Amino acid sequence: MASLCSDHSFKFLLILLALNSYINFSSAGRQIAPQTNTEFIRTSCTSTSYPKLCFESLSTHASLIQTSPQLLAHAALNVTLSSAKSTSAMMVTLSKSHGLQPREVEAMQDCVEELSDTIDELRKSISEMDQINGSNFGLMINDIQTWVSAALTDESTCSDGFGGKNMNGNVKTAVRTKIVTIAHLTSNALALVNNYASLHG
Ligand SMILES: *[C@@H]1O[C@H](CO)[C@@H](O)[C@H](O)[C@H]1NC(C)=O
Ligand SMILES: *[C@@H]1O[C@H](CO)[C@@H](O)[C@H](O)[C@H]1NC(C)=O
Question: Which Pfam family would be a valid example here (predicted)?
């Protein structure tokens, strides 16, 4: 029995060694992160609505995320927050630029308000993600799911404000493109949070 056991252990060790050299081989020449981390992100991203954006926005954080569903969800919230912050700053600048119609300025200011709610909701989510533990898991993940869903609603309200026919085409396109990206990042983050939540049954 004991020899059978150690025989198994030996095979396991061989497989580990083989895997290890495979990983070293396939990551040779890559500067980014071990293949397994990037593959984990690619696979997890297939459960989101925008897998390409998901992978592109998160693979640069592969070495931090490793193969942790919690860190993946956390990183997705981080990426969404920084995108919302930079878009908000851009819109504040845009709303002060000359040549905008009053209704465009107004839509822009409404959007900045919606984005500020989004930023607040993402910040709260990230803060709870940092505090999550075995005993508060259900409560905190529930908060996070609620806030990230609310952020998604705020973004679509902002985007709707730019839907009118009487908006300048260029401004409309520029703003909507940014907002759509944030909404897609948020949707992906929510999917990854839900995925992490489901692992705890
Ligand atoms: C999220 O952002 C915070 C603050 O910038 C950083 O300390 C943390 O490492 C990031 N976490 C992940 C998983 O990206
Ligand atoms: C879990 O986190 C809460 C704060 O959110 C803290 O009060 C509690 O002591 C922590 N529990 C464990 C088991 O770490």
Answer: PMEI
| Rg over CA atoms, the chain | 22
CA proximity to 115, closest of 175, 190, 169: 175
Could you tell me the sign of the dihedral formed by the alpha carbons of 136, 139, 142, 146, in that order? negative
Nearest alpha carbon, ligand 1 atom 6: 78
Does the global pTM surpass 0.85?
no
Q: How far, in Å, from the CA of 134 to the mean position of ligand 2?
A: 8
Number of domains the chain is built from: 2
Residues 10 and 107 in one domain: no
Low-confidence ranges of the chain (pLDDT < 50): 1-6, 8-30
* pLDDT tens string 48-85: 999 999 999 999 999 999 999 999 999 999 999 999 99
Ligand 2 is surrounded, with C-beta below 6 A, by: 131, 133-136
Instruction: Give yes or no: residues 11 and 83 share one domain.
Output: no
